[in-house]
Design brief:
single chain, mainly alpha, Mitochondrial carrier fold, disordered N terminus, transport
């Protein structure tokens, strides 16, 4: 690491002094470690992608939480309704928390994956170093990243859930809309939720998220390998074929674990839905949430908004095909 990197850095500094303008910014980026550059690039790309699909994400949250006026609407009608009564900015409510979560989540996942992998290999050598180790290490890293960034996900849901009654014509006999927002931003969500129930309140709904990590990763991995196994050998190295198999595996994994996502969303907004409104008791756990939703809202509610997830996968993979 010593002399070669040191001389390169000296050369860069010299060039930076001689040409201190836009060229200096490029040299500064060039001096960063590779993983930092990957995080910056990935964060920028992730922020762009999250913002591009933010309107669909907000509609999905409104469907999952059975928000009055939206749970029986289609995607297009819901978007039209939001646009009419909250304007363009209404389509992106809560997106800031989602964007803020990208870099820390990716960084934590990246840093802890190798740590978990080495720990498993060193402590359980009988497991070998095959794909199962990668699956376990990836799930553990994902769980760690979720725990550390979950309050931002909670804030995103609470901000997206509150629909503003900005016009009198919006009411139409519906009284769940607010003339003033319950929360005015991410900081206000953290402060209010902490005052309501302390640190644990910031993790309301984290159970279904953690439970779904391993099944989702396992199913996605298994389906991907099975699909790839049925692809002719001459096409197995094709990027298009790999992306297609990855997209189908992702769709399968999301469909199977999607009910857990619905339970999570409904648990996250329970403080905004008192138990005396609508008759649904507060969910004390994942299983109770699943059974209560089936009993009171019907099994179809467990898949409310799933079509939006399919649209997201299509839009994510189409540019590469």
């Amino acid at each position: 690491m010593g002399s070669s990197q040191g001389s390169a850095l000296s050369t860069n500094v010299a060039e930076f002094v001689e040409k201190p303008s836009a060229r200096g910014e490029v040299l500064f980026v060039d001096c960063l470690p590779t993983y930092v550059k990957e995080l910056i690039a990935g964060g920028a790309a992730g922020a762009f992608a999250k913002t591009a699909i933010a309107p669909l994400e907000r509609v999905k949250i409104l469907m999952q939480t059975r928000t009055e006026g939206f749970h029986s609407q289609g995607v297009f009608q819901s978007l039209k309704r939001l646009l009419k009564h909250e304007g363009i900015l209404g389509l992106y409510k809560g997106n800031g928390a989602s964007v803020l979560r990208i870099v820390p989540y990716a960084a934590l996942h990246f840093m802890t994956y190798e740590q978990y992998r080495c720990w498993i290999i060193n402590n359980y050598p009988s497991l070998g170093t095959g794909p199962s180790i990668d699956l376990l290490a990836g799930s553990a890293a994902g769980g760690t990243a979720v725990l550390c960034t979950y309050p931002l996900d909670l804030a995103r849901t609470k901000l997206a859930y509150q629909v503003m009654d900005t016009k009198a014509s919006f009411r139409n006999g519906i009284h769940s809309y607010h003339a003033q927002p319950v929360y005015n931003g991410i900081k206000d969500v953290f402060r209010s939720v902490y005052m309501e129930g302390g640190i644990l309140a910031l993790y309301r709904g984290v159970g279904p998220t953690l439970i779904g990590i391993l099944p989702y990763a396992g199913l996605k991995f298994y389906v991907y390998e099975e699909l790839k196994r049925h692809v002719p050998e001459e096409h197995q190295k094709s990027i298009i074929m790999r992306l297609s198999c990855g997209a189908l595996a992702g769709l399968f994994g999301q469909t199977f674990t999607y009910p857990l996502d619905v339970v999570r969303r409904q648990m996250q907004i329970q403080s905004l839905q008192p138990s005396n409104q609508g008759g649904d008791p507060r969910y004390r756990g994942t299983f109770q949430g699943l059974t209560t939703i089936i009993r009171n809202q019907g099994w179809r509610q467990l898949f409310a908004g799933l079509s939006i997830n399919y649209l997201k996968v299509i839009t994510e993979y189409t540019p590469f095909l």
